[in-house]
Amino acid sequence: MESLDLRIFKEVAYTQSISKAAKNMGYVQSNITAHIKKLESTLNTTLFIRHSNGVSLTKDGEALLVQAEQILLLMDQTLTSFQNRPETLRIGTTQTLAGYLIPKCIQAYQHQYPHISFSIMTLQQEELEYRLAHEQLDCVITNRSSMFSGAQKIYQIKENLVFIAPVSCQTFADFKKYPLIVNNVESCPYRSVLLNWWQTHHTTQPILIEMDTVEAIVRTVFVEGGISLLPQKLIVSQENLHCFVAEDLPETNISMWIPQNKSPFDYHLLKSIVEKELSV
User: Fold this and answer.
1) Is the pTM of this model over 0.70?
2) β-bridge pairing 139-142 and 88-93
3) Are 163 and 244 in contact, with CB atoms under 8 Å apart?
4) Mean pLDDT score of the chain
5) Exposure string (b/e) for 8-17, b if CB count within 10 Å is 16 or more?
6) N or C: which end of the chain has fewer CB within 10 A?
């Protein structure tokens, strides 16, 4: 079954006439008839009842028309999205995701479409929301929990977090010997989760070391400068660190947002790449 078969079938169904369909599509009637017979043979059913005034759909024909309209619409949307794909994809994200997730996604995307350029912006939540609403960004990939106004969420997945500690730290009880290393952005979800967890399990206020990059946080933990909390996927390849999993950590999520008036289908490739990278 080919798309042309469905388009011819749809035109005959709409016009209720093989001759009108042939005229509208620029084919001879025998060509139209051949495609309809081919489609009926493929599906092993009768799609039209022939009569003196033209043709009418059978029950199977009515069922196929519903599916054909959906299939052809999806095919047309696919063609349009590929033809109208921007030469530069503008992605807004957080600093952490820009460090470990976005590079892998760019590489996978450009493997299929090497002519596409990328512009990656790491911004605060409020700025991400503003730029997305005003279509200064094509999409936002974030781990912030707040909702975006004037946008639609097309993907979300739970993020697994782990404590990272120096090799000299053997148990949770040893945590109190070390400072907490956090991002200097107060809205950072990892910072919030870590501080809330500490307050739940300790009566003393922690000593904080604030860093502005993930690399600096990991390096400081490595030299036994403190403990921190980061996504498990980010530290998979890190050596000489101890990782601890706590069951009572609040849940954090990674989500993908696009402008309200955009079609999610236009972002299906990027969405599938993000989903694959996060589910591995």
Assistant:
1) no
2) parallel
3) yes
4) 89
5) bbbbbbebeb
6) C
